[in-house]
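Input.
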Amino acid sequence: MAMACDHSAFHSGAARYLRETSQLQMVRVCDGCGAVCAPLGRIDYSPNPRRFAGELAELTARELGLSKEQIARVRFAALVCGIGRDQLSPAILNKQGPLTDEEWTEVRRQPELGAALLSEVSFDDVRGWILCHRERPDGRGYPRGLVGEQIPLEARILAVVDAYAAMISNRPYRSGRDHHDACLELLRCAGTQFDPVVVRAFVSASLTRSPRLVLS
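Output.
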């Protein structure tokens, strides 16, 4: 006779789009049986078919040899990073001219806004990765100016995926880049803005994407 799961196994985060309310429901899921154990709140959200950050984060983490549990958490973190960006003012996100100092201050709050979406202790690691995903190997990132391996590997994955997602997205002031050009930019900035090992893993992993995700 099979025993019921007591949900004492490792837990991951997941998100489900609620079409009827145009919201994203974040939940905590038991890795042992896949059951939803607790809701983590709802956020207004409009799905964008060009957002593949979660899938690309998963593929990159797998390419780097992370465990199954870590891969699931990195994928969830990539989704939350995108939601954090959506909390910024549309006037700033869509501005065509240079940002003012005050507007840059708001932009630099993105990691904080994303991390603030997760309050449960079980997501302390994910929250830390999100807070660090705008750090740079050369120490010129924010909010703490971390250098090299001071930045968690998971955060370095998020940095590459987040930058790629931004480059391929259309903006009111520019068209999105194609996949090839975005990868060239990541490679150009490897070693300064991005971890070279993560960039190589990302580019390699992106070649395995489904044809429906390849952007022309």
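The chain has nine helices and three strands.
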